[in-house]
Design brief:
Layout (H helix, E strand, L loop, with lengths): L7 E4 L6 E9 L3 H8 L10 E7 L5 E10 L10 E8 L1 H13 L3 E2 L4 H8 L5 H12 L3 H11 L2 H25 L11 H29 L1 E7 L5 H9 L17 E7 L2 E7 L9 H16 L2 E7 L14 E6 L15 E2 L8 H12 L13 H22 L3 H19 L5 H8 L7
Parallel strand pairs: 1-6, 7-9, 7-10, 10-11, 11-12
Antiparallel strand pairs: 1-2, 2-5, 3-4, 4-5, 8-9
Helix pairs in contact: 4-5, 6-7, 6-12, 7-11, 11-12
Length: 439
């Protein structure tokens, strides 16, 4: 349970001016503080009450609604009061200052959600989904965040935990009762069960990787020699004249960025200067920036000019896509070149296929109605779990039950860290500090 017994408060609506602003209060003194703010008038749980709010000198600050949600049947599991008033910047801060004077303290970023987690109102995956829902960059991301918030991702993890625990019980029982005539460790069904667990982990890991991409988006660097059509491809993807295009080599001299959506995934496009030998100091700076961008982007799109003879396609990086542009003027010698995508930025031919190639490179599956959002830490914990399970398989094949059982114990601990059953305070602080204040 939540070890904190103080009362916290914060403005829950976005900064700025609006018709309505909300201040959230949570803790054992929330009801009393709200009552004193409203001049000790009575209000019932789960009813919207119109009240006037006063400062210490009994001056009227504002009027609005009070809503009281007794714990544990509230978002945080504690007594919660929402003060709804006019959404002006000054009036909101005057009300918050009075609430703090009456005994609350300013909430830390994410502290309301943290208390909900500590009071077992939700698991850690669901708490993280709240922040993902707020920051969702596309309709698909919002819907996927909502699925995580409703427990879809957690259900996958809990199903894996059930399989893992059943296998652990089997192995540890065989170790605890070695006098039995039957060698349970040699049972083929046990090996099949462990193999099925490993495959289930791989399947969930693929879905989780897709969820991370949908949640966090990707960055794409468009690189290549001058005049191969990099800026034209940027314009084709953004569907507007984002970058200046010209037949003169070296037109793009700086990094040009644009934000788009590709199949619901937020994408940051980066068009770079053409990489070549140049004596122009300004162009040289652009080329250096282009090289720096390559190291930081998730996907590198290397563009080649299909209208000119290409000697060789040099593709060496696993996150790289080779694109043959200008296929509307394709040189005959380039017809058999092996590239990832063929397109014409000018006519739009091949553009949809190029987008599909991008999504296939970064995602292990399609964005569908059962996709949930996830984070990189979930990927890391699932990979660690899968490594322990694979090692347990090997130990079981060697008939070393004690080591197999230990690997499964470590696998269970890694899996539990996803939903927060076993999570360090340092990790909780890092996760919830990224939330907005008031959530």
């Amino acid at each position: 349970m939540n070890p904190h017994n103080d009362t916290i408060a914060a403005i829950a609506t976005a900064p700025g001016t609006g018709g309505v602003g909300i201040i959230r209060i949570s803790g054992s003194d929330a009801f009393e503080i709200a009552g004193r703010l409203a001049n000790n008038t009575h209000f019932k749980p789960r009813f919207a009450h119109f009240r006037e709010f006063f400062n210490a000198e009994q001056q009227l600050i504002d009027s609005g609604l009070l809503l009281y949600f007794p714990g544990p049947g509230s978002f945080t599991g504690e007594d919660v009061v929402e003060v709804q008033a006019h959404g002006g910047h000054v009036v909101m801060h005057m009300l918050l200052a009075e609430i703090i004077r009456l005994g609350a303290r300013m909430a830390r970023p994410g502290e309301f959600s943290e208390r909900a987690f500590l009071n077992e109102k939700m698991d850690l995956v669901q708490a993280e989904a709240i922040a993902d829902l707020i920051s969702g960059g596309s309709e698909q991301a919002v819907l996927a965040s909502q699925r995580s918030l409703q427990g879809e991702f957690s259900a996958h993890i809990n199903a894996l935990l059930k399989q893992l625990i059943e296998t652990r019980v089997w192995i540890e029982s065989a170790i605890d009762f070695p006098e039995e005539e039957i060698d349970f460790l040699a049972d083929q069904q046990l090996r099949t069960q462990l193999s099925a667990l490993n495959q289930a982990l791989i399947n969930v890991l693929e879905k989780t990787q897709t969820g991370v991409v949908l949640n966090q988006g990707i960055s794409i660097a468009i690189i290549g020699a001058p005049n191969v059509g990099k800026s034209s491809i940027l314009n084709a993807l953004t569907e507007e004249q984002t970058a200046i295009i010209s037949d003169i080599a070296g037109t793009t001299r700086d990094v040009i960025k644009a934000d788009i959506l590709i199949h619901g995934i937020p994408v940051k496009l980066v068009d770079t200067a053409g990489i070549r030998e140049s004596d122009d100091p300004i162009e040289q700076q652009g080329i250096e920036r282009a090289r720096a961008v390559q190291a930081s982007c998730d996907v590198i799109v290397t563009v080649y000019d299909g209208s000119r003879v290409i000697e060789q396609i040099a593709q060496t990086r696993p996150n790289e896509l080779s694109v043959l542009n200008k296929i509307d003027r394709l040189h005959p010698d380039n017809q058999n070149l092996k590239v990832d995508a063929h397109m014409s930025a000018k006519t739009g031919e091949g553009l949809d296929g190029f987008k599909q190639q991008i999504i296939a490179l970064v995602s292990k599956g399609d964005i569908s109605e059962d996709t949930f959002t996830a984070r990189q830490r979930h990927i890391e914990q699932l990979k660690l779990t899968q490594q322990h399970v694979a090692t347990a398989e090997q130990h079981l094949a060697d008939n070393i039950g004690e080591l197999a059982a230990e690997e499964l114990r470590l696998a269970q601990a890694a899996l539990n860290a996803i939903t927060g059953e076993f999570t360090s305070d340092d990790l909780l602080g890092e996760i919830f500090s990224s939330f907005c204040i008031g959530k």
